[in-house]
Design a protein that fits this description.
Blueprint: E1 3-8, H1 11-23, E2 37-40, H2 47-58, E3 68-71, E4 73-75, H3 86-98, E5 105-106, H4 115-129, E6 134-137, E7 159-162, H5 165-171, E8 184-187, H6 190-194, E9 198-203, H7 209-217, E10 235-240
Parallel strand pairs: 1-10, 2-3, 2-6, 3-5, 6-9, 9-10
Antiparallel strand pairs: 4-8, 7-8
Helix pairs in contact: 1-2, 2-3
This protein binds 2-amino-2-deoxy-6-O-phosphono-alpha-D-glucopyranose.
Length: 249
């Protein structure tokens, strides 16, 4: 199987290791590829990884000068300047601190009047600049990756989705009023994710233990979107003790 799990008792170590994993593509000296295309994720889980990447950048160890990035997903109905948009998240945690030119930082256009059309445009961009060399993922409590909710066929490409109630509830902690959580998003599909050269899945906290165990130990099925990762030859999982609790020894 192509999935390798590494457990971390210290969450800070996990963040540093995740930054090193991405950093191999960005090294100022001898990056893995000359023009890296990175697939990036949002959420609370990778925040520490971005902090560690910014530190590596400040230390001169990595450079974003030749990189291009594609984010997994974006809410529909939020403009990029909305503080809860994933565009704003990325500027705050990575793009602004490292001075990354926004014309090479791609996210689905959640503010477009026609989300299906925006999804097609994103798909065209991925076709033009992809494939993604290295994809970072988080995992939802219901096993989603990106915003591919349970039931999404593994063949899906970038598309507009109705968010699961569980996802809206989980993400309501970022919004003043739970009613403000968007009901739709645009996400790369599982087929896009599986086309990446290699994948790093990050999981932190007890709330992710069940989703992670199902993703790695059950037969791959759309009921647990992250289980699709078992079909990929190069997947690394970095999990803290709580998230890895149900994985067995
Ligand atoms: C969100 C995002 C996912 C993310 C997941 C977990 O809804 N769309 O890309 O991985 O849920 O988020 P967190 O890391 O905050 O738990």
């Amino acid at each position: 199987m192509g999935v390798h799990v590494r457990r971390f008792s210290d969450p800070r170590e996990l963040d540093l290791a995740a930054a090193e994993w991405v950093g191999r593509y960005l090294r100022s000296a001898e990056p893995l590829v000359p023009e890296p295309v990175l697939g990036l994720a949002t959420g609370s889980t990778p925040e520490g990884m971005y902090q560690a990447l910014v530190a590596l950048h400040r230390a001169g160890e990595i450079t974003f000068a030749r990189a291009r990035t594609f984010n997994l997903d974006e809410y529909v109905g939020l403009t990029p300047d909305h503080p809860q948009s994933y565009a704003a998240y990325m500027r705050l945690h990575l793009f602004d601190p490292v001075g990354f030119p926004l014309e090479r930082a791609h996210l689905p256009d959640g503010a477009a009047p026609d989300p299906d059309e925006a999804a097609r445009r994103y798909e065209a961009l991925l076709a033009r600049f992809g494939p993604i060399h290295a994809q970072v993922l988080g995992i939802g409590t219901n096993g989603h990756i990106g915003f591919n909710e349970p039931g999404t066929p593994f063949e899906r490409r970038t598309h507009a989705v109705d968010l699961a109630e569980e996802t809206r509830r989980a993400n309501s902690r970022f919004f003043d009023d739970p009613a403000d959580v968007p009901t739709k998003a645009i996400t790369m599909g599982i087929a896009n994710i599986l086309e990446a050269g290699e994948i790093l899945l990050l999981a932190k906290g007890a709330a992710k233990a069940q989703a992670l165990a199902r993703a790695l130990q059950e037969k791959p099925s759309p009921e647990v979107p992250a289980s699709a990762l078992q079909l990929h030859p190069r997947v690394t999982v970095y999990a803290d003790e709580e998230a890895a609790r149900l994985l067995g020894p």
